[in-house]
Design brief:
heterodimer; A: alpha+beta; Aminopeptidase; seven-stranded mixed beta sheet; 9 helices; globular; B: alpha+beta; Beta-Lactamase; Arc Repressor Mutant, subunit A; 2 domains; five-stranded antiparallel beta sheet; 10 helices; 5 strands; about 55% helix; elongated
């Protein structure tokens, strides 16, 4: 099933989260050779994982990670802006209607990679439709382009740099109206199933209850937001 | 998108005082035919500023009871970046239920939508609107208006930040690509013609247009073209 989980709710799914960060290490470090850092747990994590992103995760029947991606709004910090602005010709892509999608990952354990990718396309579409977004932007490895094409989610490339293994692209995605039916068919599900999956995630889309929030450690991003507020003066109005 | 909404947004663009904000929330409430419309600047030390259509009695009550610390809408939005349908929030605690009952007694709608907005250095604001209606009607309202409300929420916050810093950022800097895209659209080119002219895909063109729309604080492409022309950024 598809799950929609904000970072601060991942601890409710330890197996799913552990296998997701492991699979990301396999895909981005081992297979694509990106300069990403992998911690002592074998987890590939970066600074954006600490900014309370939204993950869309395809869960395999055994409760492990089948595929995933990560979303952050372009009105805040994004990878494209922080590290790849030179690829977009200096255009700072920022709009509340455009979110950044990064770390599109498919698990080597997924025996049906096609339906796994279809599930992620569906999840991205649901997020776009329900939250009234227009586009996703993201950095990707051109070696993935063939795979994206195969799954019918070819991005529009708006910038690229480097060559060979070091080549990197910035792409744009949009969910075409015609893509929904194909995606349901690939997964062998009806729209109602997707709706059920989304509704089942309402709790992990919601903020933690106050009781839990109070016990949260100071290291997580959400606590950081609160502490930054404390130091900010608002002499407005 | 109607001209009436565009003129409210143009008004918002010029807003310089809390009174302006107040008038605009009232106009938006009337435009969308809702019960209430609120722009709310929040911080964790319990300070709140803003403008909105709630009764003085409810605002006083809210402040007196320090509801900011337990309001499920505020708590839910602090850590999230997607629009929040109030119905989907966690109202399970006894305190939250009592709070909602009381809010409704004071005229707050039973259905609501809140858009979280984050500015620089952890600044945080919320645009909320609500009405007394059923689930289906509210879902339909969201479906129809959520996107324009997201745009308006960010517009409110931009103006509020301007008050804050005293910096007038009505000077808009469009990138060369954004300018070319807008100029072609202003000349009446279709999207595909403009994309062809710029030798980019239509999809990419849409992103330049969206970027320009956001920078111009416009509601849609036509509105953005009009603004770019008014500001003299492009000439036809």
């Amino acid at each position: 099933m598809l799950r929609y989980i904000y970072a601060d709710q991942l601890d409710q799914f330890p197996r799913l989260a552990h296998t997701m960060f492991r699979d990301r290490a396999v895909q981005f470090k081992d297979r694509l050779g990106w300069e990403v850092s992998v911690d002592y747990n074998g987890h590939e994590r970066d600074e954006y994982d600490d900014m309370c992103p939204l993950y869309v995760i395809w869960e395999l029947p055994d409760g492990t990670h089948g595929g995933s991606m990560r979303f952050l709004p372009t009105t805040g910090r994004t990878m494209v802006h922080d590290y790849f602005a030179h690829l977009t010709g200096g255009v700072h892509i920022e709009s509340p209607l455009i979110w950044e999608c990064t770390r599109f990952c498919i698990s080597p354990r997924a025996d049906d990679m096609r339906s796994c990718a279809a599930a992620l396309v569906l999840g991205a579409g649901e997020v776009m439709r329900r939250f009234s977004l227009r586009h996703y932007i993201g950095v990707f490895d051109p070696r993935m382009a063939r795979i994206y094409r195969l799954y019918g989610v070819s991005p529009d490339i708006i910038g690229q740099a480097g060559s060979g293994a070091g080549e990197i692209c910035v792409g744009l995605w949009q969910m075409q109206d015609g893509a929904w039916a194909k995606t349901y068919a690939r997964l062998g599900i009806e729209a109602a199933t997707s709706d059920q999956w989304f509704k089942a995630s309402l709790q992990t889309l919601n903020a933690k209850t106050p009781a839990q929030a109070e016990t949260a450690t100071g290291s997580d991003w959400c606590a950081d937001i609160v502490s930054r507020h404390e130091h900010t003066q608002h002499p407005v109005f | 998108m109607s001209g009436a909404l565009e003129s409210i947004v143009n008004d918002l663009e010029q807003a310089n005082t809390l009174e302006d904000f107040q008038r605009i929330t009232e106009n938006l409430r009337d435009y969308y035919k809702l019960d209430h419309f609120i722009y709310h600047w929040v911080n964790s030390v319990g300070e709140r500023f803003g403008a909105g259509t709630y009764s003085t009695e409810w605002v006083d009550r809210y402040v007196e009871k320090d509801y900011l610390r337990m309001d499920p809408v505020i708590l839910g939005a602090l850590q999230r970046f997607h629009p929040l349908n109030w119905k989907d929030l966690d109202w399970s605690s006894k305190g939250a239920k009592a709070f909602l009952r009381e809010a409704i007694e004071y005229g707050v709608g039973n259905q609501g939508l809140s858009i979280p907005v984050r500015g620089p250095s952890g600044q945080f604001a919320l645009l909320s609107c609500n009405a007394n209606t059923n689930d289906e009607a509210w879902a339909e309202f969201i479906d129809l208006n959520q996107q324009s409300l997201i745009i308006i929420a960010h517009k409110f916050n931009e103006r509020a930040l301007d008050f804050d810093t005293g910096f007038d950022n009505t000077i808009v800097n469009l990138s060369p690509r954004e300018l070319s895209a807008m100029a072609l659209l202003a000349r009446g080119y279709s999207r595909s013609q403009a994309a062809h002219d710029l030798q980019i895909s239509e999809h990419t063109l849409r992103v330049y247009v969206e970027g320009a729309r956001h920078k111009l604080g416009a509601l849609n492409t036509t509105h953005a073209v009009a603004r770019a022309l008014t500001k003299g950024l492009i000439v036809v």
